[in-house]
Amino acid sequence: MDFIVDTNLFYYLSDGWISRADIGGATDDLFISPIVILELISGLDRSNAQYRRKIFETIAHNNIRLVPDPETWIVTRANAKLTQEPFDWQLLLDAMRTVVTYDDVRQAMLYWPPPGTRPMRTRWLDIRLANSWNARHEKDWRENLEATLKRYVPNTNEWFSTKSGPRPKMPSSLKRIVGPVLNHDNMLDDIAAGLALRLLPLSGDGVNLNPASTRSVADTYIRIFRQYLIDILLKQSVPKENDRWDIEFFLYLGAPGTRFATAEPRWENVAKDAGFPSAVKRILIES
What we know:
With about 290 residues, the chain is an alpha/beta fold.
């Protein structure tokens, strides 16, 4: 069994609240996504640099392997040709394990290896490339979410003017139609089309990467994403900032024998409601 590990578990693992065995057995493989790497390097300052380094050391000590970013993963699984070289996340992962001080962290976030120690022909790691991927991903995810909802549910413009807190209460007449509308199979095709469009700049392959092929390799994600939309509308909740990252973990679940490990009960419930009761392994944290 393979487990894609959520960011929160790396904090608990590093702090000794859980062990590797709590996530997976001796024959199971644990994987870290670039999503986690970006989350761990965000908000770095002098007060937490050593702690973040400890987390990266914990990742190395527990032999946790790296998977490509979700977009590259799906393009590759769809047998589409990559037209852009994927960002080398392994270099960043290695760099963050070797930093000692906050100044080292800042240096690692600009270039790695440091000037003067770089062997010939070693590629420099520019963290700005990772940040660019992050910014593009955030924009595409938000636009796709809003466009999908607006196509299927009328009068949703006011929902997206609310940045935090509860959304305006949904009229009962609208609430009655939300479930049936979003549960229609056309919704699955629409989400697949949006995902294919988002991935197209990475592949440029309109033959192998289309809504049908995208749905075939990302069906778990697409169905869970639809359930996520239903929950947003029926519970009048604003999408949380981390939702765009957490929901992406489900893109990896198209591979057989792969589960998402997290401490959050929310995603376990969403996956169950979407028809995937075993997609999420929730790790219980004892206080």
